[in-house]
Amino acid sequence: MPNKTSETIIGIDLGTTNSEVALIRNGAVEVLEIENGNKQLPSYVGLDEKGEILVGEAARNQYVLYPERTIKSVKRHMGSNEQIQMGDKQYSPQEISAIILRHLKQIAEKACGESISRAVITVPAFFSDTQRQATRDAGEIAGLKVERIINEPTAAALAYEAGDQNDNIILVYDLGGGTFDVSVVQMDQDMVEVKASHGDNHLGGDDFDQKLIDHIVEFIKDKYDVDATDSARAMSRITRAAEETKIALSSQAYYTIEEEHLLERPGKGKPIHLSLEVSRTEYEEMISDYIDTTLEAIHTALDGAKMSASDIGEILLVGGSTRTPLVQQRLESDLKIQPRIEVNPDLCVAMGAAIQAGMLNGKQLGPILVDVTPYTFGTSAISQMFGMRYPHCFVPLIKKNTPIPVTFSQSFYTSYENQTEVEIKVYQGEDPDAMKNTEIGEFYLKDLKKLPEGSPIIVTFSLDINGILSVTSTEKKQGVECSLVIDNAISRFQEEELEQAKNTLRNLMQDKENPKETEDQKNREHIKATALIEKARKLLPSLEGDDSEDAVDMIKALENALRKEHPNELQQAIDDLSDLLYYLEPTIEP
Ligand code: AMP
Whole-prediction pTM value? Predict the structure, then answer.
């Protein structure tokens, strides 16, 4: 029987849409797999046709068809006295949450082969005491002693190891499936304090899905004159397709929804096969207002903390919806800080809970290691710079600190009529002016049949775990494609940068790499300078006119250089006086 201090304490993120469980094993944080490689448990509870309890994916799958016996988003009801109907019985929100917690506890027990009875559970920063108590109760019902309830932004800050001495004000932007909240967090040594928090309990990825659902339903109505909302089965498929589309558009510039036999057409023969292409640009227009709302919330939270955007040292992203490129772009352009994205935004709260749990029973934790690219890679395009049209604007496609492997596509447009080729340049760097970055490759998309101005060209950057960067360019309509592979995109620069850094250091420090040698050299210079001064002083009485003046000036210069200990100046003064003495000596010492 393990003693109380070494018994594993699990960390749980009990989310509105998804929940996760994590623990510290062999000094590393591990988010446990729920099933089929998936580490997220959909926060759904249901009853099957025999009245057996379903949790997670199975419950989620039956939600559209059997909403009367399936419960989702129970977190929204925590702390209320509401009773929730499931099948023919009523449950408290704590009881439903306890079913999710018990499931996570069992997963942890299976993974570690021991019984688990202690947990740290996270809650939103804005949760009231009653909501926190309800969460604690849910844990107890599930057979878990809740050692700590911690705030989600605090957990995220722990997972990111955020906040060094200078950057201790952190903005945690959490956009999940059904909720959004933003917190201003102050980190001081081991203290993490949530200064202010603001959000919207009904804003998240589900709303983004709904925009796409409406778009698909409208398309079907226009094209086939059929109302898809009349069919629960079709709506279930459309809902799934909408989420798939949204996720695909986070890395692709276009996505085509294909749903065969989606709907019958009464009296009109063939069933409807849906085929609809959506571009990222179209999708971004659909969700732009929602993102504006989140940006306004940031400023409200900053006001609440009596701070301004310039006080923020770091932005941490939490929640699956923060993978949306527009979210990252808008945050960066509004707050002028590149948000940190290197810890998986779906899992970082659970990871932070596990870190807190590990601290409670004294487990040692190594640094959280993630493979990220240390460089930004991108291409160039004609755009506006300083209010002027400039042909070499840098367009980053993969930003530094993005976890790898990663693939990202973006659309560009041909710039003149009848264009038959497009030049693609590949750069590494951070400067908005591509010319100031390092060009690492170039190729042409050729043999295009004359394209009208403004035709889309898709450029895709893929960076794999070994630092191999593949850049592909595609003309959609003609299906013409060309690519370039840069083998050592990361290591090459590391080596080059290393060499450059070494050179700079060498120049700066005049080879401080061998301190003993440098010290000796310094002593030698001092001795030489002193000897020269002595020699020159001895010669002074015998000198006349310009020679005498020059010698006096040079002695002074060398004495100054000796005092300042500036190596370059000293060397110069030594050389000057040596030259003068060399020139004078024959006349004085025949
Ligand atoms: P969470 O509540 O943090 O688990 O976030 C779930 C939400 O993130 C759901 O709405 C998902 O559809 C959304 N999501 C997950 N992956 C992505 C992605 N790659 N791009 C955009 N949204 C995503």
Answer: 0.77
Q: Which two tokens stand for residue 471?
A: 């850049």
Architecture of domain 514-584: Up-down Bundle (1.20)
| Per-chain mean pLDDT for the chain | 88
β-sheet bridge partners, residue 13: 20, 122
- pLDDT value at position 510? 46
When pLDDT is cut at 50, 70 and 90, the band that residue 514 belongs to is low
Q: Which helix (H) or strand (E) holds 377?
A: strand 377-385
State how far the Cα of 572 lies from the Cα of 580, in Å rounded to an integer: 12
pLDDT at 281: 96
Alpha helices (H) in 123-204, listed in sequence order = 129-141, 152-159
- pLDDT one-digit tens code per residue, 356-388: 999 888 876 766 666 778 789 999 998 887 777
Query: In testing the pocket of ligand 1, which one of 246, 251, 255, 284 has its CB within 8 Å of the most ligand atoms?
Result: 246
The structure tokens 């019985």 sit at 89
Ligand 1 center to 176 CA (angstroms): 6
Query: Which residues on neighbouring strands pair with residue 174, listed in sequence order?
Result: 181, 318
Q: Give the closest residue (by CA) to ligand 1 atom 9.
A: 177
| Cα 481 to averaged position of ligand 1 atoms, centre (Å) | 31
Band the pLDDT of 590: cuts 50, 70, 90. Answer: very low
State whether the beta carbon of 246 lies less than 6 angstroms from ligand 1. yes
- Determine the distance from the C-alpha atom of residue 438 to the mean position of all C-alpha atoms in its chain, rounded to a whole number: 23
As a whole-number percent, the residues of the chain with pLDDT over 70 amount to 90
Ligand 1 atom nearest to CA at 346: 3
At the topology level, CATH places domain 377-479 in Substrate Binding Domain Of DNAk; Chain A, domain 1 (2.60.34)
Lookup: tokens for 447: 């043999």
Q: Which CATH class is domain 205-286?
A: alpha beta
Q: Sketch the domain layout of the chain as residue ranges.
A: 205-286, 377-479, 514-584
